[in-house]
Each structure stands twice: as structure tokens, then as C-alpha cells.
Amino acid sequence: MFSHAELLKATPSLSKFAMKLTRNRDNADDLLQSTILIALEKQDHFEQGTNLFSWSSKIMFNTFVSSYRHNSRFETIYDPQDYIDQVAVESTQENETDLSLVLDAMMLLSEDHQEILIKVCVEGMRYAEVAEQLEIPVGTVRSRLSRAREALQDLLNRERPRLPQHHGATAHFVSAHSTSGVFGSTAEYRATA
After folding, report:
1. Tens digits of residue pLDDT in 142-160
2. Closest CA to 179 of 71, 51, 116, 91
3. Could you tell me which CATH number the domain at 91-192 has?
């Protein structure tokens, strides 16, 4: 057992440790309070003559880890309403224009780049699936996708005339799927890029 005075003496060090763990003053105060409460409840487990700060800091760390696991499972700092609103909104003229620009830019890419972008970004295939289908290593899929995304982004950043019509396999595939919103908005495209 320990005295309340000994616990008060260890409190400044515990407070600093809580701040290092949480990096937030309010959360650190909450963690410190929880630690002191648990330490008082379990003081009969404390072995006299051992370091009180060491013992109570283990309680603090375990409390922090438990809280972190719980929060990561059941809470989020993001409000899902913005995402829900975006999903529910009809395609706007601006989104259709953005899609058209992406299609035009894709038509200027090499066939390899078009193919990898369609398989990963449009069809949602995993790298391993693409590698197996194309009979290439997964690392090649990653590097080819990275180069394709860079090339597409470069084309989208340039000022260029629009192509009169969409030609080829990419246009056929995308036009067949554009009614179901496969590409979605430019924001969704940028999220995948």
C-alpha cells in the first residue's frame, strides 16, 4: 500500500507521461484522473518498497492503450454525413465535364497505362489479381500504376484541346459504365490517384 501523499508526489511525473501519450491537454488530464482512480482502487496490489511512479505509469499506459483500442473500434473523428451527402447527390454538369476531361486524357495514355488504370481504379481489382491476370510481378503493377497516375495527372493539369470523340477500348468501357457512376466525381478520382 502507499499513502495519498506518495501518490500526490508522483502526480507531476504522471501528468508529463500522460501528455506524452495523448499529446492533448484535455485527454492527458482525463488519463491522469483515470490512472489515479485505478491506482487508488488497486493500491492493495502495490508492493511496498517498489517505485510508485513505475507501477502507476504501467497502469496509465495500459489505460491509454485500452482507451485507444476502444476509440479506434467504436468512434471516429470524421462526420460521415458529408460522404453520405456526396453519394446521394445526382451527377452535376461540372462532374460530367470533369469525367469528360478524364476520358479525354485517358485516350492520350499508352495502352498499358489505360489498362492498369481501368483494372485497379475502375474495376477495383487488387494488385495481386492484376499481376496474375497480366502475368507480371506485383511490383510491376504498382510501378506501372504509379506512372499511369502521374501521366494522367500531368495530362489533366495541362491546357489542351478536347478530343472530338472518344475512341478505343477505354472509351467503350467507360461509356458503358459511366451511367452507373463508375468514375464518379473528380474528387473521387483524386482520392484514388
Report:
1. 999 999 989 888 888 875 5
2. 91
3. 1.10.10.10
